[in-house]
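Subject: Predicted fold for TRAP transporter small permease protein, 154 residues

User T.R. writes:
Posting the sequence so we have a shared reference for the thread.
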Amino acid sequence: MLRLLIKLNLYLSSVGVAIMATLIAWIVFMRFFAGVTPHWAEELPQFLLIWVAMTGAVWCSKNNSHLSAGILALWLKDQKITQFLHRVVDVLIIAAMVLLTKSGWDLTLLTMNQHTPAMQWPVGLLYLSVPVSCTFIGLVHIATLCASWRSSHE
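User M.O. replies:
I've generated the structure tokens; pasting them so everyone works from the same file.
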């Protein structure tokens, strides 16, 4: 089930990037060739950028493709210590994602009655990207932790 959610997440991020690129091309065309800028020209790409970045973080977390220095692997040669530290990192990330999910949800509820200037969308929709993505990242790390736990006990 988690694999399906991550694939859906990646698909939605990809579609979001494609829509954002199309929108920006349309805005540039309208601004320079038609001399008119749509009223939503700044807000909609910002919404998409934030949602794409937050949902893309789930895929990066699943594939360990986020930024890391990789120095720990050079220092530690013992595989057991390395596995232990990876588990500690997973637990810390899960704890951080629980806190961020709760805080993001509170902020979403707090700002749901405020509206954006141009499109009149609830600002809470923008902040909703935080609890959604943090929940998925937490689930990814729970699955990673469970898988590493199972592999060490076999």
